[in-house]
Amino acid sequence: MQPRVIYVHGNGNKVRSELLKSQWDNALFGRDMAEASRMAYWAPLRYETPLPDFRPDPLDGGPDGIEEMPPPAAFGAPEEFVAETLGEARADGGGVPPEGVPGTGERPDAALGDWLRDMTYLADTLAETEEAGEQGPGTEPLPEALPLPAAARKAVFRTLVKHTFRDVYAYFFGGMGQAIRDVVEEALDSLDGAPVVVVGHSLGSIVAYEVLTEQKREVELFVTVGSPLAITEVQDNLQLRPAVPAGVLAWRNASDLRDLVALDHTLRPEYAPPDRVTDLLVTNDSKNHHGITEYLGNSQVRDSVQRMFNRLA
């Protein structure tokens, strides 16, 4: 039986489903995979209309998205940005009672707030460090520094932080979790027993992980890129204790050290059995180091998927 690939996209609005699937196909395989791949497309649950065709996703750091970002002056001190983003997430997510998260008594602010703070400070540090790296003697430039002044870089990075946090908050605390998981479950249920590779990006890696954990479905290869699954605050809100999903035979987790979303880059210490997990440090030279095309096009990610897919074919 022909193997199948299930994609689970990450945070933010996206282009229409068919185009998004084709973009992932071409980044990973170099061609459209037709019926051999399917996109678990949950963006309409959060966004009324898709992005226009071929408009770069601002959360992938595309250069055309920079012009539509808030002006750098709109982002104040880190503490102000954190407070503002928390407030927007509460208003956008909604549905959390004053006494806190059911069963814990904990406010979502505390449950994810440390992650938001750490992402924000890293965003500012990256913007300033990459700026310094271009200024000449006495500094060591980071690879592929953004061709932007520090203020614009800060806008790129903080835009990623803001939208990532709001969608993750809505997933865990805004009543969106089950509806998003249902989309992934439907995609997996359509396989009719075909061997499967599952690829999840950013928030999509969390969703895919929770569905695979619940279903215990056999998966030949689980690939997560730009994933926050190693973050303590994220792990604290998973439905079950972190572990490799029972049916997952191999797990590849890839991240760039500069990716704000994947602040912790190693899953093996927390997700047993560790012999099924391989953590990969890769280079993602999108504008915010989180872009999906750059992750899927990386040889360590692409080759592992293609080898598995060709073996199953």
Automatic annotation (TrEMBL):
Region (Disordered): 89-110
Occurrences of domain AB hydrolase-1 (ranges): 180-254
A UniProt-annotated Pfam family: Abhydrolase_6
Database matches in InterPro entries: AB_hydrolase_1, AB_hydrolase_fold
GO MF entries: catalytic activity
Protein name: AB hydrolase-1 domain-containing protein
Source organism of the structure: Streptomyces lunaelactis
